[in-house]
């Protein structure tokens, strides 16, 4: 019997996990965190770990992000993140994401914050008639299925591209991913059905993730 076989099954996220983040938003202090750390470990970290392990055979090994905020940048000095994220990388800056917070669940997939050279490759692929049209069709299909298409965007055209380019809206993105939110703590969030929901969303996002891995990933060897 492997460690995975003997591990507790994923049964959903307890209500206490959402309540934990609701309270943390109101009292984001070390005192609160220390007093409620066991709730975080049992109602957030443990079930998210089990969810990532359950989805691993299909999508790849996942990781959980640390709960501590990086205080080196920005004016917000609160020490703890008010969400727990899990991520499966499929290439540089590319992969599938799931997040638990006080409102519920967020599921996403695509390209996130690519480096300068990767962003240049992304825009070249968008501008290309064949690969750009492929992306355009994927994005349209995801939007038609109710997914939000998101990512940081330029207000104007990127340098080197015409403002009247047929895919100028896509060229403005500095990272592109599909997202679906499940807010207000749906009842299934506290059951094993959560894994089925995340799996179905990640499967729907897979064409976008794979396109990004090919066209945004590492530069071809010279």
Task: Give a description of the structure.
The protein has helices at 3-6, 15-26, 30-59, 116-127, 129-144, 168-171, 193-215; strands at 63-64, 83-91, 94-101, 104-111, 148-150, 177-183. It is of the alpha+beta class and 222 residues long. The protein has a 6-stranded antiparallel beta sheet with strand order 1-2-3-4-6-5. It is globular and about 55 Å long.
Features:
222 residues; alpha+beta; BirA Bifunctional Protein, domain 2; six-stranded antiparallel beta sheet; 7 helices; 17% strand
Q: What is the approximate shape?
A: globular
The CATH homologous superfamily is termed Protein of unknown function DUF1054
- The low-confidence runs, each spanning 5 or more residues with pLDDT under 50, are none
The CATH architecture would be: 2-Layer Sandwich
| CATH class category name | Alpha Beta
Number of strands: 6
Q: What letter string, H or E per element, gives the SSE order?
A: HHHEEEEHHEHEH
Q: Taking all residues together, what is the mean pLDDT?
A: 93
Can you tell me the CATH topology? BirA Bifunctional Protein, domain 2
User: Strands across the major sheet, in which order?
Assistant: 1-2-3-4-6-5
Number of helices: 7
N-end to C-end Cα span: 46 Å
Helix content: 40-55%
